[in-house]
Write a sequence for this structure.
């Protein structure tokens, strides 16, 4: 569990938000190091299953469809062996964007994203995973087009994530 790698410290300080307030990627390896960051991370398991440790808690087996939110400054690690071919969608959200979108709904909405005891917040069905993947793929395609208002698109994605949390909160 104490698997830290100082060579990967750049992950924490990497500027994911150089040109946008949301960064997304699909990860299927290279996520097996303890780290934390200054932004919110939402991820969901696209396929397979993997052990995940959040804030030095017990390893939790996450399966396809499980959704987790990692608040800023919270530590986490995926315990992945070489045979594990699971993949997950990472959606990194600048703290200011999430707070702004949450405050539009209510002052307290952002507290749903700040649980430091348990990061598992929801489970997506296969069709919901497909819908989220379509949205993320469209975002990746559109964000580089000059005639698309990037901030508006990012706010829509942020509201979709808030909607997901509000509708599917398993607590």
């Amino acid at each position: 569990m104490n698997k830290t790698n100082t060579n990967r410290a750049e992950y924490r300080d990497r500027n994911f938000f150089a040109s946008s307030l949301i960064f997304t990627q699909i990860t299927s390896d290279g996520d097996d190091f303890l780290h934390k960051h200054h932004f919110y991370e939402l991820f969901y398991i696209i396929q397979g299953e993997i052990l995940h440790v959040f804030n030095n808690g017990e390893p939790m087996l996450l399966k396809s469809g499980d959704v987790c939110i990692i608040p800023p400054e919270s530590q986490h690690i995926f315990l992945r062996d070489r045979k594990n071919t699971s993949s997950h969608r990472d959606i990194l959200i600048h703290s200011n964007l999430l707070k702004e979108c949450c405050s539009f709904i209510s002052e307290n909405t952002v507290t749903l994203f700040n649980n430091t005891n348990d990061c598992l917040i929801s489970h997506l069905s296969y069709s919901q995973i497909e819908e989220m993947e379509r949205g993320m793929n469209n975002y990746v395609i559109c964000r580089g087009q000059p005639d698309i208002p990037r901030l508006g698109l990012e706010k829509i994605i942020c509201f979709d994530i808030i909607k997901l949390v509000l509708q599917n909160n398993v607590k």
About this structure: The first strand starts at residue 22 and ends at 27.
